[in-house]
Design a protein that fits this description.
Helix content: over 70%
Largest sheet: none
Radius of gyration: 20 Å
Shape: elongated
Distance between the termini: 27 Å
């Protein structure tokens, strides 16, 4: 019984010890995805993240979400209906952009924790 309790304590300590590393990996994944969404060239990112090439390649499989075209259209629109529609489209794209970064970060945190 003592051995089982000791093993459980060691395993729970390992999970707490992994948390800072997993947080760093998640932050790095979010950083890479942010650059991906900003349409940064993959060949510029690979030298910066040599030890994390798998994260870079994985990020480039996610589509780019950019609402700036819609924002520009909304600003330049003279018709209020078009302006409202373009603003809505911008907000939808911006939500997708934020969600892509957040989901990518969570994906790598989960991988790190083994879940």
């Amino acid at each position: 019984m003592k051995h089982i309790i000791l093993i459980l304590l060691i395993l729970s300590f390992d999970a707490f010890a992994l948390q800072p590393d997993c947080k760093r990996i998640g932050e790095k994944a979010a950083e890479i995805m942010t650059k991906r969404q900003a349409q940064e060239d993959i060949f510029k990112l690979l030298p910066l993240y040599k030890e994390d090439e798998d994260i870079v390649f994985d990020a480039y499989e996610v589509p780019i979400y950019s609402g700036f075209k819609h924002l520009a259209n909304a600003i330049n629109a003279r018709n209020k209906i078009i302006k409202a529609d373009e603003k809505r489209k911008y907000e939808e794209e911006n939500d997708k952009y934020k969600r892509a970064i957040s989901q990518f970060k969570i994906k790598y945190i989960k991988k790190c924790l083994g879940k």
